[in-house]
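Troubleshooting entry. Yesterday's outputs looked truncated, so today I'm pasting the complete records for two proteins to confirm everything comes through intact. If either block looks cut off, that's the bug. Protein one:
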Amino acid sequence: MATEYRGVVFFDLDGTLLNEHSQISPEVGTAIHQLRKNGYLPVINTGRSPLEIVDTCQATGIDTFVSLNGSYLEHRQRPVYQGVIETELIRGMVDLATELNDSLSFYSKDAIHAIKDDANLQASYHSIHTPVPTIEPAYYLTHEILMLLVLTTKNDQIYQERFPEFTYYRNGAYSIDTVRQGNSKMNGIIELIDRLHLTDLPTYGFGDGPNDLTMLNYVDHAVAMANGIPAAKEAAEFVTNSNRDGGIIKGLQHFDLI
């Protein structure tokens, strides 16, 4: 399969490939189509669910993604890897969230549900312009769960101390992406490259936030957005413009990918 491509380019979504309205601008869509035409495999690498990236895939033609912070991978509509969380661990997290009066969302490969509705749940999903999950507190008992979203503004340390089996990525003021330890955007890249036999190709990564650091530190050529956190810029080979100011296009042009 490696002979199909000249390289692999990984893109974070929020704050990176998407604009401030959580959409693909026409210019970025054109750039990604040109990237593919030039022989490169574009890959979405995101904390979002597959349900939340359908429009992005349609606008860009991207058919390969690492989602849920490395916990679910897909290539050409076929699953490549799944990092399932044990039911008993989830039960413990549900009990702790209930004790702390927090909400918690469950992510399977094709659904999102929460244990209760509250202000943090509403604010978190509204901030990324996606539907608020329906309430199904027992959903995890009958489905394979790949990621949790902890809805809290203040209890980070309590979760980390009580459940060190997880890796936590705060993604905003209201919520924390939570995956089984060992899963990450970097691990998603490793799994994808190995399973698609792309090991001899150069890799590029675009990102801006805390959950992008493993990706930026792993790829051959790391690009941080101007709107990114300082640690992302420190990890980058090149700092491009912001996601609102042609940063994707400038970064691709810098490496002669388009």
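Protein two, checking that the full record survives here as well:
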Amino acid sequence: MEYKQLYNGVKIPMLGFGTYRIDPQDVPAAIQGALDDGYRHFDCAHIYGNEKQVGQAFKDGGVKREDLFVTSKVWNADQGYDKTLAAFQQTLTDLQLDYLDLYLIHWPNEDNFDLSLETWKALEHLYDQGKVKAIGVSNFSADQLKQVFAMAKTKPMVNQIERHPYKVQKELGAFDTANGIVNEGYSPIGHGHLVLEDPTIKQIAQAHGKTPAQVVLRWHLDTDFVVFPKSRQVARVKENFDIFDFNLTPAEIEQINGLDQDKHLNYDN
């Protein structure tokens, strides 16, 4: 495993396992399979509707809590100081944990950004209380981050954003890095069928004796992005973890960067 260090010294595994859209009944097998394959970083959220099952899977998984890195997020409906604290406690209860490794604001509140600033104060309180080891945001623009900087006692440590070869996020990624924020990329292979059939990626994969998915995940790591692909397929979960025995050349990284279309495959940030 490779790690990225947050500015407060916490180390985050650069490859994790995403729990988005995993049906609750499929969670036990999915989590156990990921644990067995070596995954220790798990990206969760209350809105995914499966945190109770994920928590039970952790309990049954045979891996010590201190060896796991668990992220969750506060949803828009729970933003605001008091509601965030309550939502965090519910997540801890559902996950059967005493603390989180990382807690994020899932989305900026576009209608009332002051509410997101209140949410940030709640995250700072949780951090100060030792209930979470690191705090950050998701889907925040540079301008929104600047508003957080202006009022924060503790700056965000992570910004989780959509990122894949068709949306490279060069400017926002550079802004985050310049401000000591670690970048995380969700939808890292861009919903698979679109990105993985790209001739450039297929050519690079052939050169390394790897699959297109492995090349795309390696590209994220080689460009300092933490990622957490999700798959229900046992073979694909194992395949995604097999990316630590090669690196892309600078020329190959530039080839993949050149595929950028600034194309959202999810929602607009």
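Both blocks look complete. Sanity check on protein two: Residues 222 and 247 are 7 Å apart (CA to CA).
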